[in-house]
Amino acid sequence: MTERNRATIRDVALLSGLSICTVSRALRGLPNVSEDAQRRVEDAASKLGYRASSAAARLAGGRTGSVAIIVPRATTWFFAEAVEAAEEVFADSGLDSVLISLRGRADVRERIFGDLDALAQRVDGVLLLGVDLGDDEVEALAASPLEVASMGLSGVPWDTVGIDDVRAAHAATSHLVGLGHGDFAILAVGEDDRGTVGTSGDRLAGFTQALAEHHLEVHPDRIIKEPSSIEGGYRAMTELIDNRGLPEAVFAACDEAAFGALKALREHGLSAPKDVSLIAIDDHPMSTVLGLTTVAQPVADQAAFAADLLTERLQGRAGEPQVHRLPVTLIERKTTRRPRRQP
């Protein structure tokens, strides 16, 4: 297998039918992996000719044996889950990790990206988890001595892992259409200023594409551009109910926005799916508790895969950087149903 076509940990995961996190643990001989999973991983790796990076391997040109994990904020469930998965991969490979939270502060951001030579004295590589970068920051990282990988970014000159947000939104909207709904709104498709990679534009595009394929469209008044957050979802749903009219079905750009929407419905004596079908994207841990229908993205697997790619770069893997897109899964729970007008 050529370097360009070299098997990755994702290939092993797909062939074995297991998550990337489980595959990573099995390949490194760690505990808490069942005998069946271990066998499936070993069989898949053998068929693909995949070899996990050795924890004892010398870092190619490395000096510190450390990597930096940079996040917009470390306190949200999304980034906490991603950081934990990445840290486990690095630790399993004998690497120390340094967590850097930008916290929405310009001074922290300037200190990190404005002096990458100083950062390179502390770490050998950087893993960016959902950090929105300016063109000058991309150029500076590419020109630095640091190896770089990322999660959630696109159009960057290094290995990056993520999901197809257009496809995820298309799947969510198609589920609503398939139930028989014909009157739609989309909530929380305005970007906030938290330094996080923006997904709202792609999710709005997937939403409108799915409707167009069924000769449907959404009225501009039903596109509510609030931030993708609990507060944004609450304000957006309140605006719909009070001023723009409640549609049959609502797509919230993320689970947290859907949580805010559920709160607004409850305060108005309404609920989902009795009065409106509601769907979102993410699969936040609270989605199970609240019965939210959602399109789940593999947060931990994305971070683990990106961390594994960075580890391999540090240990000498060459070849062109690649973009890896992981699949999403529709999880139907209790907030969507067929409209009442149908028999």
Structure in words:
Strands 2-1-3-4-5-11 form a 6-stranded parallel β-sheet, with helices on one face. Strand 9 (277-282), helix 12 (285-290) and strand 10 (293-296) form a beta-alpha-beta unit. The longest helix is centred in the N-terminal third of the chain and has 16 residues, at 77-92. The chain is α/β, with parallel strands linked by helices. It is 43% helix and 15% strand. Helix 1 (9-16) crosses helix 3 and helix 4 (77-92) runs parallel beside helix 13. It has helices spanning 9-16, 20-27, 35-48, 77-92, 106-113, 116-120, 135-143, 165-178, 200-213, 230-244, 255-267, 285-290, 299-314; strands spanning 66-71, 96-101, 125-129, 147-151, 159-162, 184-187, 223-224, 249-252, 277-282, 293-296, 323-325, 329-331.
Question: Pairing-aware structural class of the strands and helices?
Answer: alpha/beta
* Alpha plus pi helix count: 13
Strand content: 15-25%
- The total beta strand count reads 12
Average of per-residue pLDDT values: 89
Work out the radius of gyration.
Answer: 22 Å
- Low-confidence blocks of residues: none
Spatial ordering of strands, largest sheet: 2-1-3-4-5-11
Draw up the topology in text.
Blueprint: H1 9-16, H2 20-27, H3 35-48, E1 66-71, H4 77-92, E2 96-101, H5 106-113, H6 116-120, E3 125-129, H7 135-143, E4 147-151, E5 159-162, H8 165-178, E6 184-187, H9 200-213, E7 223-224, H10 230-244, E8 249-252, H11 255-267, E9 277-282, H12 285-290, E10 293-296, H13 299-314, E11 323-325, E12 329-331
Parallel strand pairs: 1-2, 1-3, 3-4, 4-5, 5-11, 6-7, 6-8, 8-9, 9-10
Antiparallel strand pairs: 10-12
Helix pairs in contact: 1-2, 1-3, 2-3, 4-13, 8-9, 10-11
